[in-house]
Amino acid sequence: MAAAIHPAQQDLAFKVVPPWVAPDTASLLQVSRGEIPFSSSATSKVFLPAGALFARITTATYTPHQTYSSVQVGPEVHVELKSDLLFIDHSCQPSLEFDMARFEVRVVKDRPLREGDKLSFFYPSTEWKMAQPFDCRCDAPKGMCLKRIEGAEGLDDTVLSRYWLNEHINELLAVRRMEKG
After folding, report:
1. Which whole-number Å values give the CA distances from 138 to 46, 89, 117, in the listed order?
2. Is the pTM of this model over 0.70?
3. 3-state secondary structure of 94
4. Using CA atoms, how far apart are residues 162 and 165, in angstroms rounded to an integer?
5. Are the CB atoms for 104 and 58 separated by under 8 Å?
6. 41-66 confidence digits (pLDDT tens)
7. Residue 44: which of 52, 18, 65, 36 has the closest Cα?
């Protein structure tokens, strides 16, 4: 029996440029490759005002299975970024938002992005359940770091209300609220 295809998956072919077309991230970010697993990061090479477009996601490819590196674009749909955007870390006080409905990365709305700033986004803004939950080591001020990142499913609505969330996460939260009554 074939699995039902979510509308986000059906539209994916129209939003994604073929993988041989690489976005020009070299002018936007500097990747620092760590010596131990999961320690690589990226910093900004540009100044952009709050809310500005940082990059379009043009090289993403559909993946049939969620992985530690995939990004959720719908309730059961994931993509691999296939670019240096992969090195943008999680933070509980992110500098960027990954808008997976528009396949865009934007500067957060509450402050500008400066050259040299660490590039980060709030992983639960795209992920309902993390393939690999982890202990957070972000540089958010005391009391703001969530300590353990497992996805939006495990977070209280009051915590999530502090963040910009993708449409599919808001849809899953609405289902959760209805199920709780």
Report:
1. 21, 9, 13
2. yes
3. coil
4. 9
5. no
6. 999 999 999 999 999 999 899 999 99
7. 52
